[in-house]
Design goal:
- The complex is a heterodimer of chains A (116) and B (113).
- Chain A is mainly β.
- In chain A, 0% of the residues lie in helices and 53% in strands.
- In chain A, strand 5 and strand 6 form a beta hairpin.
- Chain B has no helices and 9 strands.
- In chain B, the strands form 2 sheets. In chain B, strands 1-9-8-3-4 form a 5-stranded mixed sheet, with no helix packed on it.
- The chains are: A mainly beta (116), B mainly beta (113).
- At the A-B interface, strand 5, strand 9 and strand 10 of A face strand 3 and strand 4 of B.
Chain lengths: 116, 113
């Protein structure tokens, strides 16, 4: 398996523009997570899905952020309009529920977003 | 979920064992200890987890004290490729909250030749 795939790997945009980040989880995984990482705040969970349904979006910073998972093999994180403070590395991760104690998440390579 | 405390940074000589401590003094009986690491410019990677017994896999060993208030991740023979930020995470093994991991600041381990 190719692992979690994210695109684009790098994105540079101007303030006010719409940004769409994409993620393809590992086939067969039933959980998908979106994280954001900055030097100031570290690694933060934004939202996660189970079987394509959003379970917890309490980490989504504001209404400018939205995430969708239309099917088991694809998810998007959209920022509209983007602001310079959204500059960060965005990670997507997926996992397969095997037991309540087992929480191995597989992370993608990340998308480095720069908003000018 | 219980809060964890880790040293900000540590050094280790290549080939020697790296012992990374984690304090979780407020851990509850149903909370598990997870370790992840993040090599520079990559996504985090799962290492190991445990509840009360010591655990070992191909990557590392996890030693949990009897009172479960602290644990140590052991990399038996550290290599330069083990240089990374190591995160200790404590979370409830509940089916209602299966997904959520809260990452702290972690320990930056520098393996030196």
């Amino acid at each position: 398996d190719a692992g979690v795939i994210q695109s684009p790997r790098h994105e540079v945009t101007e303030m006010g523009q719409e940004v769409t980040l994409r993620c393809k989880p590992i086939s067969g995984h039933d959980y998908l997570f979106w994280y954001r990482q900055t030097m100031m705040r570290g690694l933060e969970l934004l939202i996660y899905f189970n079987n394509n349904v959003p379970i917890d979006d309490s980490g989504m910073p504001e209404d400018r952020f939205s995430a969708k998972m239309p099917n088991a093999s694809f998810s998007t994180l959209k920022i509209q309009p983007s602001e310079p403070r959204d500059s960060a590395v965005y990670f997507c991760a997926s996992s397969f529920y095997r037991a309540r104690s087992y929480n191995e998440q597989f992370f993608g390579p990340g998308t480095r977003l720069t908003v000018l | 979920d219980a809060k964890t405390t880790q040293p900000t940074s540590m050094d280790c000589a290549e080939g020697r064992a790296a012992n990374l401590p984690c304090n979780h003094s407020t851990i509850s009986g149903n909370e598990y200890v997870y370790w992840y690491r993040q090599i520079h410019s990559q996504g985090p990677q799962y290492i190991i987890h445990g509840l009360k017994n010591n655990e070992t896999n191909e990557m590392a060993s996890l030693i949990i004290t009897e009172d479960r208030k602290s644990s140590t991740l052991i990399l038996p023979h550290a290599t330069l490729r083990d240089t990374a930020v190591y995160y200790c995470i404590v979370r409830v093994g509940s089916s209602s909250n299966t997904g959520k991991l809260i990452f702290g600041q972690g320990t930056t381990l520098q393996v030196k030749p």
